Amino acid sequence: MTNYQFPEGFLWGGATAANQLEGAYLEGGKGMNLADVMPGGKVRLNVISKPGFDFKIDHDKHTYPNHDGIDFYHRYAEDIALFAEMGFKTYRMSIAWSRIFPKGDELEPNEDGLAFYDRVFDECLKHKIEPVVTISHYEMPLYLITEYGGWRNREVITFFERYATTLFNRYKEKVKYWLTFNEINGATHLPIMSLGFSPATEDVRLQESFQGLHHQFVASSLAVKACHEIIPGSQIGCMLIYMPVYSYDCNPQNVLHAMKEEQVFNFICGDVHVRGEYPAFSKRFFKENGISIEMEEGDLDTLKKYPVDFISLSYYMSRTEKKELTAEEKASGNLIAGVKNPHLEASDWGWEIDPTGLRIGLNQLYDRYRVPLFIVENGLGAYDTVEEDGSINDDYRINYLREHIKAIGESIEDGVEVMGYTAWGCIDLVSMSTGEMSKRYGLIYVDKHDDGSGTLERRKKKSFYWYQNVIESNGAKLD
Ligand code: BG6
């Protein structure tokens, strides 16, 4: 027996991003986007974030797995039917901006792109699956990067507003839940992915990233305004990569250091989106780091007037911080390296596994913001083996998901308001950070491999049946 109960109407489902599964990178009038020039393999983030990277495709040197993805573009009906069979109440997906505005700065949208997502939403609704749509998930049109310098440039706010408004007008009868920028707070660590530029030197990284972020904050508020005006009853949230930060020990210097890391990484973006203002501590942080944000008159007003309705988050790991650390102490695998936490195991990719951290994080976020929370990404990237009889017995994934879902249940009992849970990469797709197919998150296996081979056949893993039971019992049956 569990001592918690998931609320009626809890949004169980799965999550994906357009660039990691659609493929068809030049079909339907789509323009090129950042993901199209991201090579396959572990080198990808180094290649694209090097200042001076030319954003060109080089087939002699690299492969480009996102070009084909898992061909969701042509197989969406089959995939959504499988999601429905698992019992999904919701499907979190993203729209590729460059399918709608191929270059990004056009005045008129591309009808073929809009029609594609109409078909996808219709398929979802046919199966009573509620779409949750991320407007921008690491797939900025390439032209806005090369010609405008990405979010460094204030003009991009206008292009984004036009794009978001186009979506709200077109899909107002079909989509009620929207998210603005995927993992917006990751921008200072890897600006290229969401801001569309790489600062020339480390010295200007924070200044330029916070300037780009400010533009995104204003754009996000304008999207909130438009969404509420165009779609009555809609809900729109921000999306944070959430990693609660632990102090390595009780040395007050380390505790203070961890607190500051937490404030800057987790709370600047949260505060602007939910409280509609930059937090008190940001003044000193900006001053000490030589950050001066250029704002236009009315910006702060806009932020204050149009806060988000809820916070959505991805949760994969916690982060442990120590003020002075040696190279050996670094947690190599974690996306944002702190020190290794001696109490945690890590995945095959070195990501530390910490379900309790999710409970801690949900409590922290809810205490601070008092708005509903939605876990829109969580899962285990792992190597899977197809047995001779065709089965895939991914007990390691089931264990991972079970423990994290339990942690959510406990948080609900703690008093946290949680709207839903969508397992990341519910169907195998291309990994964002490593461009691998072999880093699999899916409950559905896709026969596609790192070298590009494979039939693309879909196959249900053991976790598929397990999750079906979880959803059917509204989280009561986890074993
Ligand atoms: C999140 C991203 O950071 O993590 C997803 O929003 C990504 O796009 C997911 O796929 C898992 O990361 P990775 O690198 O294992 O694919």
Automatic annotation (TrEMBL):
Source superkingdom: Bacteria
Catalytic-site annotation from UniProt: E377 (nucleophile)
InterPro entries hit by this protein: GH, GH_1_N_CS, Glyco_hydro_1, Glyco_hydro_1_AS
One GO CC annotation: cytosol
Classification via PROSITE patterns: GLYCOSYL_HYDROL_F1_1, GLYCOSYL_HYDROL_F1_2
Gene Ontology molecular-function annotations: beta-glucosidase activity
Family label: Belongs to the glycosyl hydrolase 1 family.
Protein name: 6-phospho-beta-glucosidase
Keywords: Glycosidase, Hydrolase
Keyword Hydrolase: yes
